[in-house]
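Can anyone check this?
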Amino acid sequence: MSRLLPFLMVTLFLASSTFATIPIFSPTTEWNPITYPGVTSDYPSDTQASSLDLDLVGDVTHAAFYTRFDATPSPQAPEGEVGYRLRMAGNQSPATFAGQAWIGADVNSDGALDLFVGANNNTVSINFAGADSNTSPNTTSIDSTPFWSASVSATNFSWTENNSSLDPDGTNFDIDNGGETDYFLTFIVPFDQLAAAVNSLSLGFTFDNTSPLAYIAATATQGQTLNADLNGVNGTAGTLSWTELDAISPEVGIDGEPAVPEPGLTALIVALAGGFFLFVQKRR
């Protein structure tokens, strides 16, 4: 037994230090919806491409956009995976996702997108935002050379018809009432590659899995464009910024949960609230 104990300890350590992979067919109840205050998750039949598999759909009880994060317990651990899931209006024939999906991220709270996680039927990738200002649909560009990419596989990509196993809380599997069952597009990237991409931008801070970020979600007919559907936007976007369109989410954690203020900021807010209370008391 004495010789077995060290082996067991090493085995447990290795198991605990290996990140948990995200099951590609895990139900939406294990994912966090990304929603935008005051707007529908997404509007039916508003894609510019007139294609079911590019039309993001959702309503007040069925999100169009979900995310999930699995990693080791250490707050700054680089290991882990980030998953993204989009609800589409249906499938084209043949049964495949024929377009391009992009998840844009603002990682430094300035209203401009910094990078994109993308997926098509061949590749999952992480791309930097292009040289434009990236503050609105009309000013956003995507670098054509990925920072990281991988061929799609059974573990990092899925285009699957919605059902009660994928969406246990779902009450409607045809959100747009168009006669076609909705489909879920799910894709997964390594968190260490996402963090490395952000940190290579030299934004003045170190990005890890405690850092907040804000998202947009969009589809495209091809390549480095956002020319099909924008999540949360009804129809065309015009020249309004992401913020003015309400097309960018509130800041969330990498797991999709609402972002929690840094401890220092929390203390400052509490101190200011206490000072205001004392000021009011003295004025009485």
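Reply from J.R.: I decoded it. The chain is about 15% helix and 20% strand.
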